[in-house]
Amino acid sequence: MTFADFLPKDVSLTIAMALCAVAFVSGTARGFSGFGSALIFMPLASSIAAPRLVAALLLVIDFVAAAPLLPDAWRKADRKATAVIVLGALVGVPVGTYFLSVLEPVTTRWIISGFVAALLLLLLSGWRYRGKDHAWLSVGIGGLSGFCSGLAQTGGPPIVGYWLGRPIAPIVARANILLFFGASDLFSMISYASTGLISRESLLLSLIVGPVYAIGVAFGASLFGRTSEKVFRGICYALIAIAVIAGLPVLDGILR
């Protein structure tokens, strides 16, 4: 029995290796800066394999990786404020999942590229919400993030930009973000499973790609403090931009 025998149907050894390479790069970005993994992974990976498959793959990998962080986040988070935003995700995640399950792959790829490009501009702008707290706004931010997560696992920037702009201790903001995404990932797991997106193929692929992603995260974390965070964040932004461009369907005949 060879390594290829463990691959899901319709996923060649070449595709698996390409997904592993993308996972390592995106994991390195996540390990160093705490962001950017989905924004790098999704445009590139969805140009290599079906968007539905790679979105489920990234969800499984991130769900497993984030689970150990949740108990500490539960203790430190402002659970009441986080619960309000989670209400938005409860609606947004299923809606995003629905569109992922019914749209044609090429259409989904165009939407993913557009979303990621918009989220990159949001990151580059340095946007932070510094206005007053409003329940309707919190629910709206949670709904937007949930929709992006359900469609393409790219819900990070709206939530991060919102929580980091609040007048609260950074440790509480981080815990709120982790707790929100724990809930959002749970909603996504339920939504993906109910629509058949969590499949034997995605689980098998996660066993292959997941360890490579974990190595990338560990490698990125080891770089923290050894190089300029400003420089590395700039590299992450550049990688996201390259991922958006390289993942455009219009370039399929040239790059793939």
Automatic annotation (TrEMBL):
The keyword Membrane applies. The chain crosses the membrane at residues 12-29, 49-70, 82-103, 109-127, 172-192, 204-225, 231-251. InterPro entries: TM_pro_TauE-like, TSUP. The keyword Cell membrane applies. GO terms for cellular component: plasma membrane. It is a multi-pass membrane protein. Its main location: membrane. It comes from the Bacteria. Keywords: Cell membrane, Membrane, Transmembrane, Transmembrane helix, Transport. This is Probable membrane transporter protein. It comes from Bradyrhizobium nitroreducens.
